[in-house]
Amino acid sequence: MLVIEPSGQACGARVTGCDLSGPLAPDLIAEIRSAWLKHQVLAFRGQAMDGDALERFTVAMGGFGEDPFFDPIEGRQNIAAIVREANEKAPLFAENWHSDWSFLERPPSGTCLLSIDIPPHGGDTLFANQIAAFAALPEDRKDYLRGLTALHSAKLAYAPDGAYGEKEQEADRSMAIRPDQSANEVRPHPLIQKHPETGEEAIYSTLGYIIGIEGLESDQALPLLMELAEWQSRDEFIYRHQWEADMLLIWDNRSVLHKATGGYEGHRRELHRTTIAAC
Ligand code: SIN
């Protein structure tokens, strides 16, 4: 039986009482899915999972989503390494609030991250609950935001001249990031989205992947996005996730933002990531 311990923060729960290393019964997946929708981020402790188990779990949760701009790890098509070597000098990967691949036409519903090599301190992942962030806004602000469409693009991050582009400082990076001209494509998504499974409204994504608002000049759109970004990441909406060995984390990209943190200089950190397709 699943044992679910809420984090006591804005979202997130720790889960024990299941073994995700072998076959996955449909009842177990249904139970996990409903806990996931409720808590948005689930941390499964004590899971000795290999690549096969990680892929099996991802398929059971909805199948593989698209993973642009990363090469997978050797021997796998759907697992990417989020890795930083102990002596690496490149800027931290994913240190800005974002929802994974929000610039795709059909962004992924979730992400799985499996601990491989965890530093003795630091390297927490932060989450911001965007259902709570929207619910706490004044009603007239909610109405205004509901009418806006955001323009998403990966260009600031993954275009050849983007943050993970072909700059000299990127030469040191151990992650297999592959910048590409296709990052310049732009796709519109409503700024406020109804969760396709729960119907709850959430603020969808933030500065890293949003380059404008349809119908607004940039001198109007940018201050609005900056003000919103500050609101979205207020302390009361945050869950700080601390990593352990043998831990699988899954989060719901439709209802939380996340970001990486540092604080483990001189130590190696590696996690294996899969993407759960849109449903
Ligand atoms: C990610 O955004 O996928 C990485 C998060 C982390 O490294 O903590």
What's the helix and strand layout?
Layout: E1 3-6, E2 13-16, H1 26-39, E3 41-44, H2 51-60, E4 80-84, E5 110-117, E6 125-129, H3 130-135, H4 139-146, E7 149-153, H5 155-158, E8 186-190, E9 192-194, E10 201-203, E11 210-213, H6 218-232, E12 238-241, E13 248-252, E14 256-260, E15 269-276
Parallel strand pairs: 2-3
Antiparallel strand pairs: 1-2, 3-13, 4-15, 5-13, 5-15, 6-12, 6-14, 7-8, 7-11, 9-10
Bound molecules: succinic acid.
The site of succinic acid has 6 residues, from strand 14.
Task: Quickly describe the structure.
With 279 residues, this protein is α+β, with helices and mostly antiparallel strands. It has six helices and 15 strands.
Explain what the structure shows.
This protein is of the alpha+beta class and 279 residues long. The protein has a single domain (3-276), classed as Clavaminate synthase-like (Double-stranded beta-helix, 4-Layer Sandwich). The chain is 20% helix and 26% strand. It contains six helices and 15 strands. The chain has helices at residues 26-39, 51-60, 130-135, 139-146, 155-158, 218-232, and strands at 3-6, 13-16, 41-44, 80-84, 110-117, 125-129, 149-153, 186-190, 192-194, 201-203, 210-213, 238-241, 248-252, 256-260, 269-276. It has a seven-stranded mixed sheet with strand order 1-2-3-13-5-15-4, covered by helices on one side. Strands 12-6-14 form a three-stranded antiparallel sheet. It is globular and about 50 Å long. It starts with a strand and ends with a strand. The site of succinic acid has 6 residues, from strand 14.
